[in-house]
Specification:
The complex is a heterotrimer of chains A (648), B (204) and C (343).
Chain A (H helix, E strand, L loop, with lengths): L1 E4 L2 E4 L2 H23 L3 H9 L3 H30 L11 H36 L7 H20 L27 H29 L12 H32 L13 H34 L6 H14 L15 H13 L1 H15 L8 H24 L1 H7 L3 H31 L5 H27 L16 H31 L38 H8 L13 E4 L4 H18 L2 H19 L4 E6 L13
Antiparallel strand pairs in A: 1-2, 3-4
Helix pairs in contact in A: 3-4, 3-5, 3-16, 4-5, 4-6, 4-8, 4-14, 5-6, 5-18, 6-7, 6-18, 7-8, 7-9, 8-11, 8-12, 8-14, 9-11, 12-14, 12-15, 14-15, 15-16, 18-19
Chain B lengths: L3 E6 L5 H32 L9 H4 L2 H26 L3 H31 L8 H34 L3 H34 L4
Helix pairs in contact in B: 1-5, 1-6, 3-4, 3-6, 4-5, 5-6
Chain C lengths: L1 H16 L14 H34 L18 H34 L5 E8 L2 E6 L4 E4 L1 E5 L4 E7 L4 E5 L3 E6 L5 E5 L5 E7 L11 E7 L1 H12 L8 H14 L28 E2 L3 E2 L2 H9 L1 H4 L14 H12 L10
Parallel strand pairs in C: 1-5, 4-10
Antiparallel strand pairs in C: 1-2, 2-3, 5-8, 6-7, 6-9, 9-10, 11-12
Helix pairs in contact in C: 2-3, 5-8
Classes of the chains: A mainly alpha (648), B mainly alpha (204), C alpha+beta (343).
The structure holds heme-A (2 copies), dinuclear copper ion and copper (II) ion.
Chain lengths: 648, 204, 343
């Protein structure tokens, strides 16, 4: 069966029907849930919010939902690859490429990025003693743009097919000559829209961290997660415009008949260069915040000051800086000549040095500490050896002649899942468990947390370790199958088993959230982990202005110092006085919606959608220009849990 | 724990809010530099991917471009004057110079539109060759920035008219003038790299 | 605990695959190029093992030793902010390790590049990648083949790569690392195979739905076998065809020759739109997917895209009678270059 939808022929086959059905069922479930528990009001408040911790929660929930989607894709990939010449459902050929591309794109842009940005939103203002980000309206707008982009990529599956050219979307394959279906249009528009949101977020965090620190919070006193956010934001600022340009060219070539990236008329390598000028910094955008989280978590649970604070900061900055000069290592086999290959090999290897400094500093932070193994700490400890495996395979990839063997094989797939899952994802879980009580006022269950951790870690190694061997046995990546005589069956089967174990592990995590929501004791106080940084001086969850009075800070680890030497209180930097807070508004959500409509109009080439989108966005921005001085004056009250100023 | 809340529309920005905006705009410009840097890179790569009958040297008309450059450079001057006026709380001066900036910007856009139409009439369209496409994208992106600046100026003029010179309008004007100067600088690069060098045929 | 895990995993895998690293393609090189790549891989694995073991040992010792035990204080007095000497140590040692790795990396990069440029009597093969098959052109010998690249042993081969459509990548793990086949560009790769045998190759760059099956083989044979094969390719292998084969050939000339070449028959269209079938019967699999036998060949002719996603060959399901099909298959199955036994 097939029908037409805005000129696109949509064929209904079992997987598409399943797609519609699941959208429909989830929609019904959401409506029933919201009505039954009377949560429409709460939802509306979240839609209108501009407050950093609520926007953070939005980012985290959306990111997590996308994680389930992209994880499901991963399970489909693994099911298809479990056996040689397997025919799992419909996922061969193009359908497999759809899954693989959606998995990679979603995981990078709509899982890892938003989860990290969500944690930044939650923690950074609290860590530096700010009441909100510098531009709350912009913050909400960033979120809704990200969601609009994510929605585009996700609906493509049921509206004519997902993108198929891999998350790197190399041309000429990604041009309409070879992939005429709309999938890659969704890719270019979806990433463009969400990319704008990401860029705005970066500007927001940069200004916040530079301008909004509480008195005494010098740069070199900031917690490492905040430092990582600062460096990451700079990376985003300089990396994303390259992607913007690349996507612009792709869009014009696909939709408006130009030939800039075509092999004959134009130059296909432009795409690869632009993509990797963005793409390599992007992977450090994913890992640096995780590094920050580990630094904070490890110091807290080892009960020790960070070893080598300033070298940790320098290493962050160095990694960020070097990250911009290594992009050719993704293009060693293109044939750019031995000189450029050699130079970029060396610059790539040099990143191991600052990363090594960080690893050893963490190890020596642990040394001589008093380690407790709460869930956040377990995730951080699991990270160290796992990430080092991924890191050293990265260095192996940088040796050019050897990379001629590894490139685009499962060895590379092994490498990047070790650094991304073993680094970024473990970091995100550590951060979620760590800041959860601050955010919601109750803890996640530690026993279930440990189950989650161990099943995840073991599943992770079973899934991804065999991939290195598959690579060495000659398995290229992005293949939907292999032959029985390739000798890859056992390894692939093991990998599939591991992947389903990780799936089970995620179920434990979901169960943990539900259980803890139902049964965990409330009233965790301000400081459930015996923390060291100033987010633990205020009540959990914090009032909307965070700090009734801003604290004055005299050192890094200020809260730990205060507990040890100042009988557990920080000095206040100001008197209680009314605070200017941003107004709630639905405009960011509406702008996101109009962006969605407009982009959809571009993809299906329907002019009135484009017009509605354009006018909607411009109209709302003009409207905002006349309302942007609106503020809420809130009179703060001190709270018994709050440890700033005065004596108890 | 209910705190007292009051909604206000103060039409004043605190010093902090002003500083945030200006700093934010600086970072935005940082990103824009990378954006235009990449567009220049694309243009220079595709510069010789032409079809018969077109080359930068034959196509471009320097006279008109020099006029456009002159207009945009003057608008940078008037924009600075407008901000200076605002700084000295000189409403009339500020308003007048902002209007002049707008007129100059709009005239620049007019010239650019004229140039584009001319090329299209001569058959050098957006899709005729990768060279033309990259040219339209580079120059067009800059033009879009000018257009956005003009729209922004309309809003600023309304604000200025209604609120006169306050910390609020001053903050907006400061952010705008930064942006406008940046757009101007980009044009100087376009003028040099695309038109002057293209005319001289050095790259070609 | 961590460590035990990993050992367990590795053991489990070795058991499961029941094979030793010596058999992994990349670690079992059969050419000069692959050997020099392997030595670099071995060096890097050795160096990286040092790093990994150092980190794992320190990690395990610290975690075990400083875990909070009953009766311990919750706070430690040891709040040392850092240690210059230690920090310099773990900056310098990695730099040293990386230098040891970087020097052969750079040297080999240049060496491999030089080798692709020095022709010294090498056999040059022009390889054109198509969605989703490989075309091998021997310009000096005037022959074209697909699926199996034949080269003589102990003689340098230079592969010149280009593509007709999307980007592909030429990879034969046992003979050397890959090089992209980019449309509009020329990639170069060279190796000196040092053992006869048949080696697997594949396309390593996503090029569309059929990417997984865009495979090929390289047959390294003795000089005389190679000569025989070249001669065999140049002329029809059979002086006389059977009846049905002759009928099949007629059908082939009518329907297939527009795209495919065959023994003694050149395709009507220039630019090779489809694989040359001159050596088809010696192939193990049809289009690298199904085992090469009559039933599967019928399946292929009926619906190529069902067998190989994205294949650019039309379906011939309704074009022939059963009988014609049998004749055509007879003909295709006779297309074997005489040079000894089948692979
Ligand atoms: C979080 C993401 C992340 C991180 C942190 C890294 C980190 C690194 N990556 Fe990775 N990489 C990816 C994500 C990431 N990568 C992705 C997604 C791809 C594939 C993209 C695609 O094609 O789809 C990729 C691909 C990729 C390639 C291209 C492979 C190919 O396609 O042919 C290369 C090549 O050089 C590379 C190298 C490195 C190196 C050298 C590091 C270094 O930063 C690692 C540094 C860390 C250590 C080395 C460990 C700790 C250090 C010590 C304990 C000190 C002592 C160490 C030594 C002396 C060695 N990566
Ligand atoms: C953040 C980044 C990230 C993460 C976390 C992951 C996580 C995983 N990835 Fe990967 N992956 C990429 C980024 C990532 N990936 C990228 C960039 C590519 C390259 C794409 C390309 O080549 O273009 C790739 C490619 C890739 C491949 C190679 C495909 C190919 O080359 O053909 C494979 C194969 O096994 C794979 C597997 C997995 C698995 C098993 C997980 C597991 O860790 C996933 C674990 C999570 C779950 C299992 C979710 C649990 C959910 C459920 C159980 C469903 C429940 C549902 C509801 C409640 C509705 N990924
Ligand atoms: Cu050709 Cu993949
Ligand atoms: Cu990289």
């Amino acid at each position: 069966m097939s029908f037409y939808f805005f000129g696109e022929k949509i064929r209904l086959v079992s997987d598409i029907i399943a797609g519609y059905l699941s959208i429909f069922l989830m929609g019904i479930a959401a409506v029933v849930f919201l009505t039954y528990y009377k949560k429409w009001g709460a939802l509306w408040r979240y839609v209108k919010t501009t407050h950093h911790s609520k926007v953070g929660i939005l980012y985290l929930s959306a990111g997590f939902a996308f994680f389930l989607r992209a994880g499901l894709d991963a399970l489909i990939i693994r099911a298809q690859l479990a056996l040689p010449q397997n025919e799992f459902w419909v996922f061969q050929g193009d359908k497999y490429n759809q899954m693989m591309t959606t998995h990679g794109t979603t995981m990078i842009f709509f899982v890892a990025m938003p989860l990290i940005i969500g944690l930044m939103n939650v923690a950074v203002p609290l860590q530096i003693g700010a009441r909100d980000l510098a531009f709350p309206f912009l913050n909400a707008l960033s979120f809704w743009l990200f969601l609009a982009g994510g929605a585009l990529i996700n609906i493509s599956f049921v509206l004519g097919g997902s993108p198929t050219a891999g998350w790197t979307s190399y041309v000429p394959l990604a041009l309409d000559e070879f992939t005429p279906a709309t999938g890659n249009d969704y890719y270019s528009l979806g990433l463009q829209v969400s990319g704008i949101g990401t860029l705005l977020t970066a500007i927001n965090f940069l200004v916040t961290i530079i301008n909004k620190r509480t008195p005494g919070m010098k740069l070199m006193r900031m917690p490492l997660f905040t430092w990582a956010t600062l460096v990451t934001s700079i990376l985003i600022l300089f990396a994303f415009p390259a992607l913007t340009v690349a996507l612009l060219l792709l869009m014009f070539d696909r939709l408006y008949g130009t030939g800039m990236l075509a092999a004959d008329a134009g130059n296909s390598l432009i795409w690869q260069h632009l993509f990797w000028i963005f793409g390599h910094p992007e992977v450090y955008i994913l890992i640096l915040p995780a590094f920050g989280i580990f630094s904070d978590v490890i110091t807290t649970f080892a009960k020790k000051r960070l070893f080598g604070y300033s070298s940790m900061v320098i290493a962050l900055v160095l990694i960020g800086f070097l990250g911009f000069m290594v992009w050719i290592h993704h293009m060693f086999t293109v044939g750019l000549g031995p000189t450029s290959n050699a130079i970029f090999a060396i610059s790539t290897m040099s990143i191991a040095v600052p990363t090594g400094i960080k690893i050893f500093n963490w190890l020596f932070t642990i040394r001589g500490g008093v380690i407790t193994f709460n869930t956040p700490m377990l995730f951080s400890l699991g990270f160290i050896p796992s990430f080092v495996i991924g890191g050293v395979t990265g260095v192996m990839l940088a040796t050019v002649p050897a990379d001629y063997q590894y490139h685009d094989s499962y060895f590379v797939v092994g490498h990047f899942h070790y650094v991304i899952v073993g680094g970024t994802i473990l970091g995100i879980f550590a951060g979620v468990y760590y800041w959860w009580p601050k955010l919601f006022g109750f803890m996640l269950n530690d026993v279930l947390g440990k189950w989650h951790f161990w099943t995840f870690l073991i599943g992770f190694h079973i899934t991804f370790f065999p991939m290195h061997i598959m690579g060495l046995k000659g398995m290229p990546r992005r293949v939907f199958t292999y032959l029985p005589e390739d000798g890859l069956t056992g390894l692939n089967l093991a990998s599939t088993v591991g992947a389903f174990m990780m799936g089970g592990s995620m179920m434990i995590f979901l169960w943990n959230i539900y259980q803890s929501y139902r049964h965990s004791p409330r009233e965790v106080g301000n400081d459930p982990w015996d923390g060291r940084t100033i987010e633990w001086t205020i009540p959990s969850p914090p009032p909307e202005y965070n700090f009734a009075r801003l604290p004055k800070v005299y050192s890094s680890d200020a809260w730990w110092q205060a507990k040890k030497y100042q009988n557990g209180r920080l000095e206040a930097a100001e008197e209680l006085s009314p605070i200017r807070m941003p107004l709630d508004t639905a405009k960011p959500m509406l702008i996101g919606m109009f962006m969605l409509i407009g982009s959809f109009g571009i993809i299906v080439e329907v002019w009135y959608f484009q017009l509605v989108g354009l006018l909607g966005v411009i109209g709302l921005m003009v409207l905002h220009s006349f309302q942007d001085s609106g503020r809420k004056m809130v009179t703060p009250k001190t709270h018994p849990d709050e440890k700033i100023g005065g004596e108890e | 724990m209910m705190a007292e809340e009051k909604i206000v529309f103060s039409k004043e920005f605190t010093e902090e809010e002003t500083a945030d905006r200006v700093l934010g705009l600086w970072f935005f410009i940082g990103a824009e530099i990378v954006l235009f840097g990449c567009l220049f890179g694309v243009y220079l790569t595709l510069n010789n991917h032409t079809v018969p009958g077109e080359s930068p040297g034959e196509l471009f008309e320097l006279k008109q471009t020099i006029l456009a450059t002159f207009l945009l450079l003057s608008s940078s001057f008037t924009c600075a004057q407008s901000f200076l006026g605002a700084k000295k709380n000189h409403y009339k001066k500020s308003f007048f110079f902002l209007i002049s900036t707008f007129v100059l910007g709009a005239a620049f856009l007019g010239l650019e539109a004229h140039e584009f139409f001319k090329y299209v009439r001569e058959g050098h369209t957006f899709t005729s060759s990768p060279f033309m496409s990259s040219f339209y994208i580079l120059v067009g992106t800059h033009g879009t920035h000018v257009l956005a600046g003009c729209t922004w100026m309309v809003l600023l003029l309304i604000h200025l008219k209604r609120e006169r010179i306050t910390s609020y309008t001053k903050a907006k004007l400061e952010a705008f003038s930064l942006y406008w100067h940046f757009v101007d600088v980009v044009w100087i690069f376009i003028f040099t790299v695309v038109y002057l060098i293209g005319k001289a045929g050095i790259i070609y | 605990m961590e460590k035990m895990n990993k050992f367990g995993v590795i053991l489990f895998l070795l058991l499961l695959t029941g094979c030793s690293p010596a058999k992994w393609d990349v670690l079992n090189p059969k050419s000069s190029t692959a050997e020099s790549q392997l030595s670099l891989i071995q060096l890097s694995i050795a160096l990286m093992s040092i790093v990994l073991i150092t980190v794992t040992v320190l990690f395990t010792v610290f975690v075990v030793k400083y875990r909070k035990r009953p009766g311990w204080e919750t706070e430690t007095e040891n709040q040392k902010p850092g240690d210059k000497r230690l920090e310099i140590t773990w900056t310098l040692i990695p730099i040293l390790i990386l230098t040891i790795l970087a020097v052969p990396t750079v040297l080999d990069t240049y060496k491999l590049d030089r080798e692709t440029k020095a022709s010294d009597g090498a056999l040059v093969v022009k390889v054109t990648a198509h969605q989703f098959w490989w075309e091998f052109d021997y310009p000096e010998k005037g022959i074209t083949t697909s699926e199996t690249l034949h080269v003589p042993v102990d003689k340098k081969v230079i592969i010149e790569l280009t593509s007709e459509d999307t980007i592909h990548s030429f990879w034969v793990p046992q003979l050397g690392g890959k090089q992209d086949a980019t449309p509009g560009r020329k990639g170069k790769l060279s190796f000196v195979p040092n053992e006869t045998g048949v080696y697997r190759g594949s396309c390593a760059e996503l090029c569309g739905p059929g990417h997984a099956y865009m495979r090929f083989h390289v047959k390294v044979e003795t000089e005389s076998e190679f000569k025989a094969w070249v001669d065999g390719m140049k002329q029809p292998n059979k002086t006389s065809l059977t009846d049905s084969e002759t009928k099949g050939e007629e059908i082939f000339k009518g329907q297939c020759l527009s795209c495919h070449g065959s023994q003694g028959l050149e395709p009507k269209v220039s630019g090779s739109p489809a694989p040359h079938l001159g050596d088809f019967a010696s192939q193990k699999r049809i289009a690298n997917v199904l085992p090469n036998n009559r039933d599967n060949l019928k399946k292929w002719l009926d619906d190529p895209r069902k067998v190989k996603p994205g294949a650019k060959m039309p379906s011939f399901k309704t074009d022939f009678t059963e009988e014609e099909k049998e004749d055509l298959i007879d003909y295709l199955m006779s297309l074997n270059v005489k040079e000894g036994e089948k692979r």
